[in-house]
Write a structure and sequence with these properties.
- 61% of the residues lie in helices and 5% in strands.
- The radius of gyration is 31 Å and the shape is elongated.
- By secondary structure, the chain is mainly α.
- The chain has a two-stranded antiparallel ribbon.
- The protein is built from 19 helices and six strands.
- β1 and β2 form a beta hairpin.
- It folds into three domains: 88 residues, Fumarase C, Chain B, domain 1 (Orthogonal Bundle), CATH 1.10.275.10; 249 residues, Fumarase/aspartase (Central domain) (Fumarase C, Chain A, domain 2, Up-down Bundle), CATH 1.20.200; 95 residues, Orthogonal Bundle (Ribonucleotide Reductase Protein R1, domain 1), CATH 1.10.40.30.
- It binds arginine.
Amino acid sequence: MATGKKPWSGRFQKATAENVETFTSSIHYDQRLYPYDIEGSIAHATMLAGQKIISKNEAAKIVSALKNILKDIEKGKFKFNPADEDIHMAVEKELIKRIGETGGKLHSARSRNDQIVLDVRLFLRTEIKIVIDLMNSLQACLIEMAKKEIKTIMPGYTHMQKAQPVLLSHYFLAFEEMFARDVQRLNDCAGRLNVLPLGAAALAGTGLPIDRNRTAKILNFPEVSKNSMDTVADRDFIAEFIFAGSLIMMHLSRFCEDLVLWSSDEFGFVEISDAYTTGSSIMPQKKNPDVAELIRGKTGRVYGDLFAIMTLLKGLPMTYNRDLQEDKEPLFDAVDTVKDCLQIFTEMIKHTQFNAGKMFFAAQGGFSTATDIAEYLAGKGVPFRRAHEIVGKIVAYCLKNKKGLDNLTLKEYQEFYKDFTADIKNIIKLEKAVNSRNHTGGTATAAVLKRIKEFEKSLN
Ligand code: ARG
């Protein structure tokens, strides 16, 4: 696929080997940067004309041709040539094809080294907004679910063992807190990446009289980068985004893991809609939570993207090195995977039924109000450690005699501690246990409703 003369061929005696062209080319994936590459070039040409580095006439020709190229790409009329090295070369080649030599003036005071960082920053700036919107939809959905399930009591687990009863709403809000922090991280990242790199040129800046603030203004960057070497060398903003994305995936994955477990016959806490599950090719009775499993699986993929970028950057000598071309596939993969997963997870959760009866029944088992009895005794002045021991003995007695905490008589309670009174029967009711935890962060209905209100306010 020899492409003929390269824009950089001046000092070369021999043509590039064909397999080197293929090996070094990134056009098959970086072509998706075309709207940003063209937007950046239009801003750059406008600034060049403002500074009289090129004439107004030349800039007008360049800008109009770039706009036409953009339209043609969008209409599918322009086919990227697999032989083009990257998106910058592809667009520039087409520009020169359309307007001749003048097209060659666009690259004044610019290098692909600052151009690629610009493209990626513009790309990520747009994509982060989409990810945040998807997060906000999920957050809104969880709030609706928390409101709907405000009376549903479920067993809360630690070590996968029934621990204490909680509201299902409280469980949903746990993820709401995690997702809220994820959004904060995305916003932080969006703020830090919103810096104009153009003007750094290859690594040292340019001798031509550019106006970086003008370019920044056109492209809506509140700031220009302050060190040309840093600008072309670092990709920390990519690592930061993928890390934020990895945490989003980790949170989704944990939610999915519960859904997978809870849709088993053993739990039966949830029923994911037929539309968001799949069947088995051999076992006719099966309905599998494949969407949840795939989100869990794809989390590993995004972690892989994070490791790829971290390893890519480690040990790179200053400043730009071609290794950096390998930053885009992990970034694109992370962006696409996170967006896909957020979208489908939100739809799936909207189409999931929570079985309040089964959850309540399960919450009654496992002595899940044992802590309430210990706290009851502590309230009567028994040192908590002593109270813990007394209740431990009560549980052992129940296990031995196949009884639950709720079918012991007051007399039996009193055999373990004389000051038990009749109100103990009330203490071990699930609703009572849940509603006793009425403080910021607790699972009481009032505390959860308060948090729902706060979330509703911050989301609007
Ligand atoms: N395709 C390259 C990348 O993604 C663009 C910059 C190439 N610069 C260079 N001097 N070869 O990083």
